[in-house]
Protein 1
Amino acid sequence: MFAKSLSRRIAIASVGLILAAGTALAEDNVTFRVAYLPTANYLTTVRTTGILEEKLGKVGAKVEFIGPLDPFSAYNTVTAGNADASSTGTGYFVNLSAQKSPWVAFALEKYSGNSQGLVAAPGSGVNELKDLYGKKVGIDGEGATGDYILNLAFKQAGLDVSKVEKVTLDTTSFASAFASGQVAAIASYDQNLANAIATPGAKVLVTNDQLPSYNWSIHIVSRDFAEKHREALKAAYEGLVAESERAHKNPAIITDAYKEFGASDGLVKVVAGFDTPTILPLDEKAVADLNKLGAQYVEFGFIDKAPDIADYVVDLSK
């Protein structure tokens, strides 16, 4: 009897080990390919820490970093099937969702909003928002973050944004257009905002932490990867959470990333004053906030109909 019982326990234990091994290697041969941006969001900073390698390795998966790429190139890289994930702003994500794009969000990178704003150029004579009537304001594209900032600031102030001339600038043109007086102000974020603030004679008109803004950073992945490799994606999410915790203990992680991408000492000093982001799941609270953002996008004429963001997210906190 004892021998049979022992044999049975050994058999059960063996099955358990086999199942455990199968679980650990559930994502074996899966590579999480990240098209990262030249900015200090956590999907960029984590590439030098080994955190994603560790988290993904526990489920038998790997990570590959591709870049740095500008946001549009990163988007095209994923849609072409050459990468699985990237980062963007929540506004652009709402826009993509309204177009029924094959993306889902898996991590929200939330901050106060003081890294986004509207800054008047030196010598522009602009001291308040109303002074921008009839003047040119540089933005990063129709319906993009800068356009959102501009519309939101003018709405909050009870002003008519149609009286401003919007000028679309690419990433490399913001600094020169601002410094040379080609535009009276810029509405931008991160490096471009910091560079503008650091310019002698510039004046900050408003930052997004002073507005009812829902524009943050967000990490997105192809729906195909999310559906086929949830375990690997959850490991990636946990890696971003760990990177966020690391940055809160040592914010220099963020400024060091800006230095790596060529930021000047003056720019880095401004960036050091920006809020340190926190990684959060795409839970009911996040979905509600992004649906409010969608309503703002409709109000501002960026999209015709707001998408139901719940259809374009995966909550990895569950």
Protein 2
Amino acid sequence: MHHEGTVIKACGGHYYVSLGEEIYDCAVRGRLRREKQQILVGDRVIFSPHSCGQGVIEDICPRQTRLVRPPVANVDRALIVFSVKEPPPNTFLLDRFLVQAQHAGVNPAICFNKVDLGEENIKDIYNVYRRAGYPVVCASTRDGRGLEELRTLLKGHITVLAGPSGVGKSSLLNALIPGLNLKTGEVSRKLGRGRHTTRHVELLRLPGGGLVADTPGFSSLYLPEIKREELGKFYLEFIAYQNDCRFNTCLHFQEPGCAVKEAVKAGEISTFRYENYVQLLQEVMELERRYW
């Protein structure tokens, strides 16, 4: 009898497939090996369960998404984590992660962590991203604030965490999954940034439902291959205005009659969000000139 399950771990030719509460240690059918079909963590697979928790993967279901970093299939939620202090939030990096996630077809949500250090530090930023249309949660692993809201947000999804080092991604996972005890890295006082501490890819079960990768995703070091005219669609608050621009191909940069720029002047779109957009746009344009 065949069943459909999710690959939650791959190691040394063994694929661990989750079916409800059961985990099966599966080999791969010879046909798939001959066809050199790569099986990724996160893949939905058709498999034949055998006795003693063993099984054989017969086929791979079509993927909805495929990430390169980490190499996980079918991720549909990116939780982008920034801390309110130590280190303070950098909205340009945050926007960079948001663009990466949306370009990959993954719905982003934002978590401002360490709010026990002073929630007032991100009140204005919080409101800007909420008004733009992103789910935003404030959390603290010290006093438990926001953890239930995060569990609800991630329930039923395959999630990857993203964000700079030192913001508490591993601590959040430890708080969301009791007994996990992932190694965490303290923020370097000298450098003001954290050390990378997670090394392998595995999908962890969240209490109440959902899976989350234990390895951070995306990177602040790159932008995906985006055409300059595509960037604006990844700024959700621009969408309500861009049809009123004079030009259909408006980049919301130097063109006259730009409804987005008028909305910025009127205070309807955040100035810092627009400035981040322009900085990213110039980077995209430079990459086009260099490589395309």
Protein 3
Amino acid sequence: MPELPEMENYRLLLNPRITGIPISAVEVGREKSINTSVEFFQQQLIGASIYTIERRAKHLLFHLNTTKVLVLHLMLGGMMYYGSGDDRPERTVQITISWGNRHLFFIGLRLGYLHLYDVLDVERLLLKLGPEPLEPEFSFNDFALLLQRNRGTLKSTLVDQSVISGIGNCYSDEICFEAGLLPSRRCQQLHQEELERLFLSMLHVLQTAAHQGGYMEMPLFSGDHLTGGYDSQCKVYDREGEPCVRCGRPLVRQDVSSKKSFCCLNCQS
């Protein structure tokens, strides 16, 4: 599932390519991926333009030059591709937004969605989300307070969007590995020094992954050499049986709080 770095990468790459240009056509192949009738969805988009793209947690917010906002959540298996009709991926496309001969294809939205809201409705929708971990005002003290009052494991807490927003299965494991902590550790058991390591690891992993394009497998457009650049740098996620980059012992997969998790039992504690 795309997480904060993947959605931030999409935001940065799409903003200069699709903003300020009137939308010429909208095709909906799966009505369940939107929250209105197809006719109303098309009516609201065609002729309007996107003036900016914002990210909140794992969502992208496409702000139209009207009172409307498109809210995208890719969920499991969702991705996007931007290009010409000849570039159309050989995958099932649920929604296509067009600007003349350029198109943004939304792929794999079987669980994900592209919903249309008024601005005020979006604000209410996102109220349940926790703080953004990369915002400058999110301090170590804020982070420590959130974890210390949580009884769950590091795994369940880091992926809980109401606690801290944007982190999922992949980066929770990568953060724990960098901090030398097992995802199964209980938050309330952590000492001050461990909390500090975890906080710094979270910032470093998320910033590095976003800067290097996240781990998505498919480029966003032809010639895109950034998207997916972090995949080869993941140290533990989906690396079961491979040698640990720190100690050489085989990495293991464990189910932690009913979620798959990857770690090194030798150099994480």
